[in-house]
DNA sequence: CGCAGGATGGGCT
DNA sequence: GCCCATCCTGCGG
């Protein structure tokens, strides 16, 4: 299966990338073990003009520096002190756009995912951004990692038809004011792995 | 069922 | 100090 290359990640329209990522395969290879899942839910964060983005108003910190890198690297950060959230950095250098991967449908290495998860999970294994990071072994060490290398990457797959995609508002961004209402969340309809609420 | 609460750490006012 | 782009558990009805 072909890896997505830099040109894909550097497209200017971050919502178009978020939309196109649905149905593609997110893969990690750690200690020779492949774990992979179909991307079923994404959210776009549109850089300095998006109040929900860490990089809103051109904010630069040690943490957000990764978002300013050229498209095609991983942006991983710790949320609520517990969960690592995995984002794909998009667009060109100094344009801090990103796509948050919110849910996967497991495909390869499910046994390994369950081991990493280390509880009675089955249904929740990769539904929700904190869960999927844990299942795929994604942590802060992956921050800034290239998505065209051999640790973590995304594989090409058939485009999901528009009538199977549902568009809605993003989760957990009430603080962003009117930007909280932007239609920047993309899910595959009727997929059991979409986080909370299932299906649509 | 549903919902409140806790875990836990970095970055900002 | 306090706010979070979260998730699981345990409690009450």
Automatic annotation (TrEMBL):
Keywords: DNA damage, DNA repair, Hydrolase, Membrane, Transmembrane, Transmembrane helix
Signal peptide: none
Highest taxon above the source species: Bacteria
GO molecular-function terms, A-Z: alkylbase DNA N-glycosylase activity; DNA binding
Enzyme Commission number(s) from the entry: 3.2.2.-
InterPro entries in UniProt: Formyl_transferase-like_C_sf, MPG, MPG_sf
Membrane spanning residue stretches: 67-86
Keyword DNA damage: yes
GO biological process, one term: base-excision repair
Database matches in CDD domains: AAG
Family: Belongs to the DNA glycosylase MPG family.
Protein name listed in UniProt: Putative 3-methyladenine DNA glycosylase
Organism (species): Chitinophaga niastensis
């Amino acid at each position: 299966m072909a890896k997505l290359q830099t040109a894909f990640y550097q497209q200017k329209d971050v919502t178009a990338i978020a939309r196109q990522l649905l149905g593609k395969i997110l893969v990690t290879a750690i200690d020779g073990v492949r774990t992979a899942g179909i991307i079923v839910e994404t959210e776009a964060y549109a850089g300095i003009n998006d109040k929900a983005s860490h990089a809103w108003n051109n904010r630069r910190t040690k943490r957000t520096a990764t978002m300013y890198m050229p498209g095609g690297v991983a942006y991983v950060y710790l949320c609520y002190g517990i969960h690592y959230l995995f984002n794909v950095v998009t667009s060109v250098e100094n344009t801090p756009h990103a796509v948050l991967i919110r849910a996967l449908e497991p495909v390869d290495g499910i046994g390994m995912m369950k081991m990493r998860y280390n509880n009675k999970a089955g249904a929740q294994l990769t539904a929700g951004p904190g869960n999927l990071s844990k299942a795929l072994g994604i942590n802060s060490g992956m921050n800034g990692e290239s998505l065209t290398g051999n640790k973590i990457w995304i594989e090409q797959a058939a485009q999901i038809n528009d009538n199977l995609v549902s568009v809605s508002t993003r989760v957990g961004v009430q603080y962003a004011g009117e930007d909280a209402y932007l239609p920047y969340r993309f899910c595959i309809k009727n997929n059991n792995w979409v986080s909370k609420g299932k299906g649509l």
